[in-house]
Amino acid sequence: MNILVTGGAGFIGSNHVRHLLGTSDDRVVNLDLLTYAGNLENLAGLEDHPRYRFVRGDVRDAALVRGLLEEERIDAIVHFAAESHVDRSLDAPAAFLDTNTRGTLVLLEAARDRELGCFVMVSTDEVYGSLAPDAPGFTEETPLAPNSPYAASKASADLLCRAFHHTFGLDVRITRCSNNYGPYQFPEKLIPLMLANALEDQPLPVYGDGQQVRDWLHVSDHCRAVDLVLREGRPGEVYNVGGRNEWANLDLVKLLLAKLGKPESLIRFVTDRPGHDRRYAIVADKIREELGWEPAYTFETGLEATVRWYLEHRAWWETIRSGAYRDYYETMYGEKGRYGDRA
Ligand code: NAD
Ligand code: DAU
């Protein structure tokens, strides 16, 4: 197959490109705009791979997308490209709608016109909204109730995919995964941010009471699930992906500190994220039963490997944190920032 991966220079996309090249004979064309979150360092060593091509470009550029589908005789699209950080979507929602929703529409229209074999939409569990502490987890039948501009933009894209399958018969398959962790995650997200701050003996900003719950899955288990859906999933179906691995943020932050041998006194409780979803939990029975997917990592093995990766790749995250990201961090966490100290 010739596979177009969008957003392949980001966290999950770059892990997915490596997964595809390492486990299949497929040709991979990676279309990525290289926004602040896209980083070619994430793909170091693949530059000269005979089955790989990187194209810097925008998924909203219809001419570029159509040209690539034609020129590369693309059989399938795996769509990761997105603005992915909830906090940023609170301050600049328009960029989220534009990239996540309109960008997906551009890809869907190009795929429909070319009668593409398969379109895998990498959606998210955030489209389901928030769960009460004791409620059962999200299933594929849970109604969509997105709460942040990010989640709303992803839900809109997710529903456009459904419509293109229903109306035009396009072979679209949707995955909705819980929180990922692992190598190459941009250090604005909880786990890499906390690891980097702890290693630099800087405060660890915990939003609100820190009792929000997330369901964590190692990124390589997510990539295997997405690939399985591409190869063995059914057209028009939605597949939840998650690790049955719920952690309150505060407990997770304390665990990370313990792993690094750093004191809990580094924790700072800061103003809560507006509209903060209290809990996510995924029921992944469908992909387990239909496609035989199982996570390969336990949280223990996955987190151990991840902590080691950030320890061994200090230059990777230090470079990111020394650039424009520093201004973002000041805007968010500085004294007058959105998440300024509550004290
Ligand atoms: P990320 O922010 O690390 O990477 C996003 C990538 O998309 C970057 O390389 C960026 O340059 C690229 N991009 C952004 N706008 C683009 C555009 N207009 N055209 C082309 N490329 C563009 O994100 P991530 O955490 O790797 O998430 C990838 C996908 O997985 C997203 O769609 C996200 O919604 C979804 N998802 C993420 C998680 C998670 O825990 N991170 C969980 C479930 C689903
Ligand atoms: O559930 C899937 C989603 O997971 C993906 O769709 C998103 O792209 C991805 O960013 C992630 O969203 P979250 O908002 O859950 O992830 P984040 O790492 O931003 O935050 C995780 C939790 O930690 C959340 O409850 C907010 C909290 N948090 C986060 C940061 C960055 C803090 O308490 N302090 C922080 O500094």
Structural summary, described in words:
- The chain has 343 residues and is an alpha/beta fold.
- The chain has one domain (2-333): NAD(P)-binding Rossmann-like Domain (Rossmann fold, 3-Layer(aba) Sandwich), CATH 3.40.50.720.
- It contains twelve helices and twelve strands.
- A seven-stranded parallel β-sheet has the order 3-2-1-4-5-6-10, with helices on both faces.
- The termini are far apart.
- The mean pLDDT is 96.
- Residues 6-7, 9-13, 31-35, 37-38, 58-60, 80-82, 84, 99, 103, 122, 124, 154, 177, 179-180, 186 line the site of nicotinamide-adenine-dinucleotide.
For the structure shown, list the relevant keywords:
343 residues, alpha/beta, Rossmann fold, 7-stranded parallel β-sheet, 3-stranded mixed β-sheet, binds nicotinamide-adenine-dinucleotide, binds 2'deoxy-thymidine-5'-diphospho-alpha-D-glucose
User: Which ligands are bound?
Assistant: nicotinamide-adenine-dinucleotide, 2'deoxy-thymidine-5'-diphospho-alpha-D-glucose
Question: Strand percentage, roughly?
Answer: 15-25%
Number of helices: 12
Strand order across the largest sheet: 3-2-1-4-5-6-10
What is the CATH superfamily classification? NAD(P)-binding Rossmann-like Domain
CATH topology: Rossmann fold
CATH class: Alpha Beta
Order of helices and strands: EHEEHEHHEHEEHEEHEEHEHHHH
Rg, Cα atoms, Å: 19 Å
Topology:
Elements lengths: L1 E5 L4 H13 L3 E6 L19 E5 L5 H10 L4 E4 L6 H6 L1 H22 L3 E7 L24 H20 L3 E6 L1 E3 L8 H10 L4 E4 L5 E6 H14 L5 E4 L4 E3 H12 L6 E4 L14 H7 L7 H14 L1 H9 L2 H9 L10
Parallel strand pairs: 1-2, 1-4, 2-3, 4-5, 5-6, 6-10, 7-9, 8-12
Antiparallel strand pairs: 9-11
Helix pairs in contact: 1-7, 2-4, 4-5, 6-8, 10-11
Nicotinamide-adenine-dinucleotide (NAD) binds next to helix 1, strand 2, helix 4, strand 5 and strand 7.
